């Protein structure tokens, strides 16, 4: 979603889906294994992970239980991802072009990217 100031905010369902997929893969588990424990279809869990479905709180709780995650930790990770995705970035430029992109601060801002020139 693009805000009025031109910055981009990802949808919560995309962030949550990516976090669930990362947790599942970190555990070395398949979609089918987690879906069975969470008592849902593999296809539905796949759509949640891809950010195509907006999961209910009951679905999130079931998937978190199946992955042995606390819902509060999932929400905290989603918050951190949202902050990181919306904060301004500093681009360090040299005579050969951009050399790195790093976060300037942890709070979202309405300003656009800040460009710093390096000697």
Automatic annotation (TrEMBL):
What is the protein's name according to its record?
Answer: Transcriptional regulator with XRE-family HTH domain
Coiled coil (UniProt feature): none
* Residue intervals of the HTH cro/C1-type domain: 20-74
The alphabetized UniProt keywords are: DNA-binding
- Using the record, list the residue span of the signal peptide; answer none if the entry has no such feature: none
Q: Which domain of life is it from?
A: Bacteria
DNA-binding listed as a keyword: yes
Q: Does the keyword DNA-binding apply?
A: yes
Offer one Pfam family short name for this entry.
HTH_31
InterPro entries in UniProt: Cro/C1-type_HTH, Lambda_DNA-bd_dom_sf, TransReg_Diox_bact_type
Supply the source organism's classification. Answer: Bacteria, Bacillati, Actinomycetota, Actinomycetes, Micrococcales
């Amino acid at each position: 979603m693009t805000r009025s100031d031109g910055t981009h905010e990802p949808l919560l369902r995309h962030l949550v889906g990516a976090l669930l997929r990362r947790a599942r893969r970190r555990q070395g588990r398949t979609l089918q294994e987690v879906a069975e424990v969470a008592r849902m279809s593999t296809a539905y869990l796949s759509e949640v992970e891809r950010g195509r479905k907006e999961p209910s709180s009951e679905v999130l709780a079931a998937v978190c239980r199946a992955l042995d995650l606390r819902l509060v930790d999932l929400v905290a990770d989603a918050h951190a991802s949202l902050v990181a995705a919306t904060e301004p970035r500093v681009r360090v430029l040299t005579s050969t072009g951009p050399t790195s992109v790093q976060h300037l601060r942890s709070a979202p801002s309405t300003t656009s990217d800040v460009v710093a020139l390096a000697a």
